[in-house]
């Protein structure tokens, strides 16, 4: 029996058609009681960019993705223990962190934030990845 559950498997040749890549990846992995969520951007799971030129709108979509992936892994936002946020311009810090903070109000994760020169595609302004740890006694909340 596998101790790892791989959620939303994909190949990079499909997600980056403008690049010569052929890597098998997934959006999230649940390993025991730990959930690792791949860096999420302002693109929905159908590949549509939300918020072209708008870091707050991209952060909103990225957090929707994080929430959905955690739920698919049997978790939720309240179990996030660490976030890493990447922005391509220091002026994006406030709008992006306001959105992330709204989604994680009352969660109190540790957080790392980085300003980097670029992300995987030029239209991406921010990216966030998270790690969540599900307590042994946790039961999913109805309607979550």
Automatic annotation (TrEMBL):
GO cellular component: cytosol
Name of the protein this chain belongs to: Enamine deaminase RidA, house cleaning of reactive enamine intermediates, YjgF/YER057c/UK114 family
Family membership: Belongs to the RutC family.
Superkingdom per UniProt: Bacteria
Gene Ontology MF: a single term: deaminase activity
